[in-house]
Amino acid sequence: MASRTPSDPIIPGATVLVTGAARGMGELYARRAASEGAAALALWDVDDAAVTALARQLERPGLKVVPIVADVSRLASVRDGLARTVEAVGSPDVLINNAGIVRGAPFWEHDSERDIEGTMRVNTLAPMWITREALPAMMADASRPKRILNIASAAATIANPNMSVYAASKWAMLGWSESLRLELGRSGASHIAVTTFCPSYVSTGMFAGARGPLLTPILTPERAVDAAWRGMLAGRPIVSKPWSVKLGMALRGVLPTRAWDVLADRIFHIYSSMDNFTGRSGR
Predict the structure, then answer these.
(1) Is residue 28 domain-resident?
(2) Which residues of 56-87 are buried (b: 16+ CB within 10 A; e: fewer)?
(3) Helices 24-35 and 221-234: crossing angle, nearest 10°?
(4) Phi and psi dihedrals of 9, rounded to 5?
(5) Range of the domain at 50
(6) pLDDT in tens, 154-165
(7) CA 189/CA 183 separation, integer angstroms
(8) What is the tens place of the pLDDT at every residue in 159-200?
(9) In terms of CB atoms within 10 Å, which of 22, 76, 120, 250 comes out highest?
(10) What is the CATH number of the domain that holds 43?
(11) The overall pTM is greater than 0.85
(12) Residue 1 placed within a domain
């Protein structure tokens, strides 16, 4: 397959699929794609009214926007959603696996089905399922560069109390996303770049009550999306924000575990950052 140069356009003329598109960061990704010249948007969400309203706002001459009501925690719904997407706007050139949920509590307080299985389905299995269904067409079409943006978390890099299930889902996503990136490179599909975004807490309401650790301010959704978007366009493998996320990864990698525990708990206050977590109301 032909290689691509950084000057090749990514978004202008592209078909972009965004999951969890009705609000928060998903909505911002959708608006960014629209503003940068995408030809078509497939907006996936479980909230019919909200995703339909957003689609109506964004549609304009030269841009087709299709709301797709899909429950990404169900494989049958994923397959149906992709079939409807392809029928309406074609196969995606850019796939943004943004949909996610968080349940914050000690592990033994998690409900096995709702919390554990539900989190793994939405945060881990859904991106795998969607990508697996979309990837053959993306690999076959090397006429333009393709992008896959997987929204993980700083929780994919450092363990934290009161988010064991969420962290597990994001660790799994990071490992899968990085392996996929390497596999695509080895297969010759150089026109597809995979980026994994690992932000610390973002003020979307999803992590309401959480406190940013030392040197780690809570990101605004706009700043987080801008960093992920720029990294995706550039084809960067991993984007971590703020800078202290990489610092934590480096220190955790070189320090003995017990020494890191003391530093993370007493100095950086990472281990207490979820103590007052409430999450988005009604979720």
Answers:
(1) yes
(2) eebeeeeebbbbbbbbbbebebbeebbebbbe
(3) 50
(4) -70, 145
(5) 15-267
(6) 999 999 999 999
(7) 9
(8) 999 999 999 999 999 999 999 999 999 999 999 999 999 999
(9) 22
(10) 3.40.50.720
(11) yes
(12) no
Task: Kindly state the tokens that stand for 277.
Answer: 């977590």
Residue of 236, 21, 37 lying closest to 130 (CA atoms): 21
**Does residue 274 lie in a domain region?**
no
Dump pLDDT digits (tens) for 6-37.
Answer: 446 899 999 999 999 999 999 999 999 999 99
Q: Which of 178, 180, 174, 161 is nearest to 123 (CA)?
A: 174
* DSSP state letters, 37-62: T-SEEEEEES-HHHHHHHHHHH-BTT
Q: Specify whether the CB–CB gap between 18 and 94 falls below 8 A.
A: no
For residues 39 and 21, give the distance between their C-alpha atoms in angstroms, rounded to a whole number.
17
Tally of structural domains, the chain: 1
Given a contact cutoff of 8 angstroms between Cβ atoms, the answer to whether 147 and 232 are in contact is yes
Cα gap 161→210, rounded to integer Å: 12
Q: How far is CA 103 from the centre of its chain?
A: 17
Unique residue bearing structure tokens 């980026």: 195
**Residue 282 covered by a domain:** no
Could you tell me the CA-to-CA distances from 41 to 64, 65, 200, 201 in Å, in that order? 6, 5, 27, 27
Contacts of 125 (CB under 8 A, 6+ apart): 73, 75
Look at phi and psi of residue 126 and say left if phi exceeds 0, alpha if psi is from -120 to 50, else beta: alpha
Three-state DSSP state, 113: helix
Task: Give me 63's structure tokens.
Answer: 């841009």
